[in-house]
Amino acid sequence: MTTLIIIGMIILLIAVVRAKNSSISRRPNAHLKGPGAYEFDIVGESNYQSELEAICGGRKEESAEEYRDAVLVLEDDNPFDNKAVRVDIDGVTVGYLSRKDARSYRKQLSEKGATNYICSCNALIAGGWARSKQDQGRFGVKLDLPVE
To answer: Which listed site, 19, 75, 100, 122, has its alpha carbon 20 to 30 Å from 61?
Structure first.
């Protein structure tokens, strides 16, 4: 009987974790095609330098210039901002849209009737050089989003 209760609790825990992380594993509903200008900086990359370094294959003497797909995930349960939009590349978080850009993005989704959409867009990871111990740059991410 105790074994059945423990197994039931484990199954319940797995279901809760999967439900909470379902937005991470969902595929994007649409790809947003920008003009190729990569004008949108994201914020918080300083907290994800090791993830960006891994995506770029490590630091090199010259600045990185990695083009990837980014996934924009609505984070309604973010404890700091319930309107946050997380930016993931290669399945890992690399930053967020700025507060202003997140609200604008959400407004545009709402106007198009796509309030729960997960979208992707083109992204550019730049920086992250390592010429010496004293000369190292941080990685940054710019998004190529349509401008309306």
So the answer is: 122
